[in-house]
Design goal:
TIM Barrel, alpha/beta, eight-stranded parallel β-sheet, binds pyridoxal-5'-phosphate, 17% strand
């Protein structure tokens, strides 16, 4: 193996151990949690190595980086998640490679995603991004809709051609009542998911937890964790 492959294999093994331990501690089966590796800022060659090591889900947050990478890796059996704030003028490009968009947080975006999904003849899975620190009716600084806005947005996604409502996504808030309380934040997400599933029983995904707080997410009941740094290393700073 190359040095990089060794390094990624070792990091993946450590993350796998953490997820398995968190599942065991929570009395959950390991299969209940899916690892998504966030490959943003890292090259397509790393994505290829991760695929060789058995990774099936990768995530990106900037279309400019993701689009060429997805093209270079189009021969690999990967599921691509888009997790970044998404401008409507990037939607056509993102729909070209993303199987799921986890950052759906406004109706304008739903309209644009639906239009491009239909145009491309694709079905795009959508997660509503929730900002637990947004004021009611507002949006989070890093995107996301306030909890009170989930229902309406979910109904729009469910009714939109070309889109599939898969569940909810969040990033643990740095401000507000949940700052520093990751477990409480993720438990609140599970309550919001229960509410959502009353109207949309198939929307079972809860994407929560990153390198620093995946244990809390698994403890709360998350179905998907998004891990970047712990697998690929500390990212070089962007600009
Ligand atoms: C970068 C990113 C992650 C991964 O964060 P790490 O701390 O590197 O594990 C997860 N989710 C989103 C939305 C991200 O942008």
């Amino acid at each position: 193996m190359t040095d990089r492959k060794d390094e990624l294999a070792a990091n993946l093994a450590k993350v796998e151990e953490r997820i398995a331990a968190a599942c065991a501690a929570a009395g959950r089966a390991r299969e209940e949690v899916t690892l998504i590796v966030v490959t943003k800022t890292y090259p397509a060659s790393d994505v290829r190595v991760l695929s060789e090591l058995g990774v099936r889900h990768v995530a990106e947050n900037r279309d400019q980086d993701a689009a060429p990478k997805a093209v270079e890796c189009s021969d690999l059996p990967l599921i691509w998640h888009f997790v970044g704030q998404l401008q409507t003028n990037k939607v056509r490009s993102v729909v070209g490679y993303a199987d799921l968009v986890q950052s759906v947080d406004r109706s304008k975006l739903v309209t644009a995603l639906s239009k491009e999904a239909v145009r491309a003849g694709r079905e795009v899975g959508c997660l509503i991004q929730v900002a637990l620190d947004a004021g009611e009716g507002g949006r989070g600084e890093r995107g996301g809709v306030a909890p009170g806005g989930i229902g309406e947005l979910a109904d729009r996604v469910a009714a939109a051609e070309g889109l599939r409502l898969d569940g909810l996504m969040t990033v643990a808030p740095l401000t507000g009542e949940y700052a520093g309380r990751e477990l409480a934040a993720f438990e609140r997400m599970m309550d919001l998911s229960t509410d959502l599933r009353r109207a949309h029983p198939a929307a079972t995904m809860v994407s929560a937890g990153m390198s620093a707080d995946l244990e809390q997410a698994v403890a709360a009941g998350a179905t998907h964790v998004r891990v970047g740094t712990a697998v690929l290393g500390v990212r070089p700073r962007l600009r």
